[in-house]
Specification:
14% of the residues are buried. The chain is mainly alpha-helical. A 3-stranded antiparallel beta sheet has the order 1-2-3, with no helix packed on it. A two-stranded antiparallel ribbon has the order 4-5. The longest helix has 23 residues. Helix 1 runs parallel beside helix 3, helix 4 packs antiparallel against helix 5 and helix 4 packs across helix 6. The protein is elongated, with a radius of gyration of 30 Å.
Length: 196
């Protein structure tokens, strides 16, 4: 309480600290609410793990995260606890798509990585393009554990374009050069066929 007997700081109700500001007439005009932690992801993760526990096998359905999350929301996370994405690509994939998400992810990453590593090993020129593509793939895999950038359409479009270009360069264009077959028939000027 301040000198005028007004509450200026409280954590009643939900345990979240609130600070109040008053105008000259004594009316509460401002309420500042704490978030509980400096990085809200640490506040959200227990709720996300409860979602995984409930939907680990087949998930809640593609694109349903923002609809399902409110039932698991922790009010102690503060004002900004409304999530549209899980801030973790792997948790959101597991929550919405279940275990099949990891099978599709593993197959996709394995295919891309195999093509890029083969390009690094086999290309004589432009080997750096395959290496850059592999670096980009690793960067997105690591970044997905702390954020959801790949879900942003602009990021995913650029990622897809760069991955596509990297894989095309890594695979290279294999020119098919065919030598004449030793057993092939060749027409002679006399019209008779002879073996080469």
């Amino acid at each position: 309480y301040d000198a005028a007997g007004r509450v200026w700081r409280s954590n009643m109700g939900d345990g979240v600290t609130k600070v109040y500001g008053y105008d000259k007439n004594g009316n509460a005009t401002v309420q500042i609410q704490s978030q509980g932690t400096t990085d809200l992801r640490f506040c959200f993760y227990p709720s996300l793990m409860r979602m995984v526990d409930d939907h680990w096998l087949v998930g809640t359905g593609f694109g349903t995260f923002r609809d399902v999350y409110p039932a698991y929301k922790n009010p102690a996370c503060g004002l900004k606890s409304e999530l549209l994405e899980a801030h973790n690509v792997y948790l959101e994939g597991w929550i919405t798509l279940g275990l099949p998400f990891f099978a599709v992810l593993a197959a996709s990453v394995a295919g891309l990585a195999a093509a890029l590593v083969a390009g690094i090993r086999n290309r004589r020129s432009y080997r750096w393009v395959a290496a850059a593509g592999l670096g980009l793939l690793i960067q997105q895999l690591l970044h997905g554990s702390i954020d959801f950038a790949i879900q942003n359409p602009g990021v995913s479009a650029i990622f897809a374009a760069l991955m596509g270009a990297s894989v095309v360069v890594a695979r290279g264009r294999q020119a098919k050069r065919t030598a004449p077959d030793a057993g092939a028939l060749q027409a002679s000027p006399s019209g008779q066929h002879s073996r080469l």
